[in-house]
């Protein structure tokens, strides 16, 4: 047995540290207080900076130039439907005319202008994610990106983080265009990419912690991802997903407190979420946890 004490007369094995040196080895509260509040991975900080910077630069553009920017780089489902889905331009215009809203005549004129060249502009499946409809829109997406992008970046690294963001953005754009094939209003925002990050994080953030060889429990981004059946049985994951889908329903259909923004769409959120959920296991550098058998 080992004892923390020493017997009288035995040579001391404890190293004596002078008081001044012992004091210097203690944590410095002033040094700790200077640590950054938000210790974001560089790729997450740069991503948020790019989104904010692009929106800030757009404020210096004229309304006409900014409008042309939206038409060139936003997702317009009717444009894809005409270019790739075999839909006739006249079919889109007739659908716009049948709309009972007072803006129907303006939408018809916009439809003629956008669809006149017949180009699909497939790059908009990515570029739309860099544009936002308002400062509140870009700031909310930035907050969620910091919250859920951080564990993904720490776990997977820069390349896989960007790959997940890209495929989630494309998935959101495709599902939105599929469900609104005759829509002529531009759709923009990084919400689909952020939703993909949220879905990816749900694989491991709520998994049980394990002890590492150095004697500490795993952090959230270090935990091995659970199997799909274990996720379904995990109450925390179900609550998280339930709140997320309820929030999408609330803002997509009910629009509480007058909140309405044509530049965001629940279909894009769901599309990005589903793609992120399916794609993350292919990117995850850590091995999965063995499935836990029900008791």
UniProtKB/TrEMBL annotation:
Residues annotated as transmembrane: 37-57, 125-149, 161-178, 184-206, 237-258, 264-283
Protein known as: Rhomboid family intramembrane serine protease
Domain of life assignment: Bacteria
Stretches assigned to the Peptidase S54 rhomboid domain: 120-280
Native organism: Microvirga thermotolerans
Biological-process GO terms, alphabetical: proteolysis
UniProt keyword annotations, A-Z: Hydrolase, Membrane, Protease, Transmembrane, Transmembrane helix
Molecular function as annotated in GO: serine-type endopeptidase activity
Topological type in the membrane: Multi-pass membrane protein
Localization per record: Membrane
Keyword Ubl conjugation carried by entry: no
Family label: Belongs to the peptidase S54 family.
């Amino acid at each position: 047995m080992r004892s923390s004490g020493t017997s009288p007369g035995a040579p001391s094995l404890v190293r004596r540290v002078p008081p001044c040196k012992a004091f210097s080895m203690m944590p410095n509260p002033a040094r700790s207080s200077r640590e950054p509040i938000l210790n974001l991975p560089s790729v997450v900080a740069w991503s948020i900076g790019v989104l904010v910077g692009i929106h800030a630069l757009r404020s210096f553009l004229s309304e006409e130039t900014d409008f042309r920017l939206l038409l060139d780089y936003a997702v317009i489902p009717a444009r894809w439907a005409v270019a790739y889905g075999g839909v006739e331009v006249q079919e889109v215009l007739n659908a716009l005319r049948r709309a009972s809203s007072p803006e129907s005549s303006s939408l018809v004129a916009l439809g003629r202008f956008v669809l006149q060249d017949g180009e699909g502009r497939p790059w908009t499946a990515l570029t739309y994610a860099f544009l936002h409809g308002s400062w509140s829109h870009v700031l909310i997406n930035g907050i969620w990106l910091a919250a859920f992008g951080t564990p993904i970046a720490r776990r997977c690294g820069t390349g896989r983080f960007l790959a997940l963001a890209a495929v989630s953005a494309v998935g959101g754009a495709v599902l939105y265009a599929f469900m609104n094939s005759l829509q002529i209003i531009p759709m923009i925002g990084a919400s689909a990419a952020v939703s993909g990050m949220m879905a990816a994080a749900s694989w491991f953030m709520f998994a049980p912690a394990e002890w590492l060889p150095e004697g500490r429990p795993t952090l959230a981004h270090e935990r091995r991802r659970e199997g799909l059946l274990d996720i379904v049985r995990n109450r925390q994951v179900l609550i998280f997903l339930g709140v997320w889908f309820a929030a999408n329903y609330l803002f997509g259909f009910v629009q509480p407190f007058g909140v309405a923004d044509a530049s965001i769409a629940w279909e894009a959120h769901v599309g990005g979420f589903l793609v992120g959920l399916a794609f993350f296991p292919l990117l995850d550098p850590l091995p999965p946890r063995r499935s836990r058998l029900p008791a």
